[in-house]
Design goal:
Layout lengths: L13 E5 L3 H12 L3 E5 L13 H7 L2 E4 L4 H12 L7 E4 L5 H13 L3 E8 L2 H6 L2 E6 L2 H12 L2 E8 L3 H29 L4 H9 L6 H11 L9 H17 L5 H15 L24 H26 L8 H4 L5 H5 L14 H15 L4
Parallel strand pairs: 1-2, 1-3, 3-4, 4-5, 6-7
Antiparallel strand pairs: 5-6
Helix pairs in contact: 3-4, 7-9, 7-10, 7-11, 8-9, 10-11
């Protein structure tokens, strides 16, 4: 592990940044503030300084090119676009979290042109990138890493050499499994605390002195209590990482139960249209987002009363017809599912059960939250 020293940073070097998402944009801004000349390219044009027309044009200006694109396909497409302009003077940094095989394939494209390739996965979100305090997990040859370190030092607080290309990606995916599982567990714990009628702040206070407390929980829990899901690391990107983990696990016959559960909850948020929110938005399934005039109990009661009125109407129609209603399974009848089935009711819930029973009320809140989690 290496801690950076500012004394060896080549401040008059041109650096290219490809991909102006949350992290790429923050790194480009940080490098400019450090005195570097930064040229940028993004698939969708941005009104930013030194925006060039193509990856190839970027390679004409810069020997060092940092790639911050979102997934495997984007990384491979980017290095292919760069490849015709690459020469032995270029060093390419791949910062994306992708499958190890994709990282090795990208390295092969770059190295065939005589350029050097550095796998530089990172940990740290928007704030760390803006302050130049990322931690890089790096992979590559000694020659490539020797030339790469001064550039990486400019935006990091630590550089950790993992091994050959591909191994840093595996470490990064594994660490994100822990991160996603931790936030999923925290969301479920908050739901349990709320169901017991306890202040959520008490849970946060208890966690601060708990052995399982972490930097991730310290950063995320206050925002989760405020229902603040402004993105630092998005749902769609964490979902992508969990899918990579599960693909790797399947190839080795591993059963990743916690990771699969975290993936499923992230996927649900994607389906509700929250893919660009912070991944802590998995909390939406468990806790309501209070708004003006919002009241939980009347909505639960109205739902139960509506179902009771529907049942009464069906019985009246059957009585008027003088025949017994056929016993048809809902799926065979092709009917729209009742509110209970949408909420995950088993059919055993009595619509006349008193809504004031604390345990039942808490359970109904959970179910209604699940039903309404996609509504803005």
């Amino acid at each position: 592990m290496e801690r950076p020293s500012s004394a060896t940073q080549p401040k008059h070097t041109n650096i290219g940044v490809i991909g102006l998402g949350i992290i790429g944009r923050a790194i480009a801004g940080h490098l400019r503030r450090k005195g570097f000349s930064v040229f940028v390219w993004n698939r969708s044009p941005r009104p930013v300084p030194n925006f060039v027309g193509s990856p190839g044009e970027l390679a004409g200006f810069c020997n060092y090119i940092q790639i911050f694109v979102s997934d495997d396909d984007a990384l491979l497409q980017t290095v292919e676009q760069l490849s015709e302009k690459l020469t032995p003077r270029h060093v390419i940094f791949a910062h994306s979290t992708v499958a190890p095989d994709s990282m090795r394939a990208a390295a092969d494209v770059v190295e065939r042109r005589g350029a050097r390739f550095v796998e530089a996965c990172f940990t740290g979100s928007k704030g760390a990138a803006e302050k130049g305090e990322l931690v890089y997990y790096v992979g590559g040859t000694e020659e490539a890493l020797r030339e790469a370190r001064p550039i990486l030092r400019a935006s990091s607080k630590e550089i950790m050499h993992i091994g050959p290309v591909g191994q840093a990606s595996a470490i990064k995916v594994a660490t994100n499994m822990v991160t996603a599982g931790s936030i999923q567990a925290a969301a479920e714990a908050l739901a349990l605390v709320q169901a017991q009628g306890l202040p959520l702040e008490k849970f946060v206070e208890a966690m601060r002195v708990n052995a399982s407390y972490s930097g991730t929980l310290a950063m995320k829990l206050p925002n989760m209590l405020e229902r603040n899901f402004a993105p630092h690391f998005s749902v769609k990107h964490m979902l992508k990482d969990m899918q990579i983990a599960i693909q790797i696990a399947l190839s080795h016959y591993l059963d990743l139960g916690v990771t699969a559960a975290a993936r499923d909850q992230l996927l649900e948020q994607m389906q509700w249209g929250h893919g660009d929110d912070d991944y802590s938005a998995v909390l939406r399934k468990y806790l309501h987002e209070p708004g003006a005039g919002y009241s939980e109990e009347p909505q639960i009661q109205e739902l139960l009363e509506a179902r009771a009125r529907q049942s009464d109407a069906e019985e009246s129609i059957t009585a008027l017809a003088g025949v017994e209603a056929p016993n048809v399974e809902p799926q065979e009848a092709g009917l729209v599912a009742s509110p209970e089935s949408l909420l995950g009711f088993s059919g055993t819930m009595n619509a006349t059960a008193p809504a004031t029973t604390p345990l039942r009320r808490g359970f109904l809140k959970q179910l209604l939250s699940r039903f309404s989690s996609g509504e803005e």
